[in-house]
Specification:
This protein has about 180 residues and is an alpha+beta fold. It contains six helices and eleven strands. Strands 4-10-11-7-6-8 form a six-stranded antiparallel sheet. It has a three-stranded antiparallel sheet with strand order 1-2-3. It has a two-stranded antiparallel sheet with strand order 5-9.
Length: about 180
């Protein structure tokens, strides 16, 4: 499905992952491909103040991309946090705003909730980020944390919650075949 809003063309793709509808929105003007992508799954521990070291490979990607500012928000579908480079956050927000009808109160409320949940984040001189108590509680993070790369953003999980989710997931090969097996190469 595609559409033109103002001078921007939006391409929207709906797909289903584990029974949940997802929406991918991209624009021809604002989409900026990250040359370097986040890769990997790393463990860490929070300190008593809620500070945690961002894994060095992720810091290197941010540095290579020239990203200084980050945005942290609760995930829409899972009990985890999502850390966006500011440019990725801005692109996503611009695309979302372009799809929201300003005269539809439900859509306006959805946008309010999405934006209100976001917090700006800066890494300190040691490469740590401070996660608010409210965010730690939402994600069920007490001490052990897992950082999971998700292409252009990073998910932050309670170690226990991510371990349980990964253990409960069906076989990856079966999921990949079900999702993409009928596609032509």
């Amino acid at each position: 499905m595609w559409g033109i809003v103002g001078n921007k063309t939006y391409i929207c793709t709906l797909f289903n992952v584990h029974g949940q509808k997802r929406l991918k929105i991209s624009t021809n003007k604002f989409e900026r491909e990250m040359t370097n992508r986040f890769i990997g799954d790393y463990g860490a521990k929070t300190d008593a103040k809620g500070r945690v070291f961002l894994p060095a490979p992720f810091r290197k990607v941010l540095e290579a991309e020239g990203e200084k500012s980050l945005v942290l928000r609760n995930d829409v579908f899972q009990k985890c946090l999502v850390l966006y480079p500011e440019s990725v956050w801005n692109e996503q927000l611009d695309a979302l705003r372009g799809q929201v009808n300003q005269w539809n109160s439900k859509q306006q409320m959805m946008l309010r909730k999405f934006e209100a949940d976001a917090e700006p984040i800066e890494l300190d001189g040691n490469g740590r980020l401070l996660i608010s108590k409210r965010k730690l509680q939402y994600a069920g993070i007490e001490a052990d944390v897992r950082f999971l790369a998700m292409v252009d953003r990073i998910e932050i999980w309670s170690k226990q919650a991510l371990d349980e989710l990964m253990d409960d997931s069906a076989d990856l090969g079966d999921e990949m075949e079900a999702a993409f097996g009928g596609l032509d190469s």
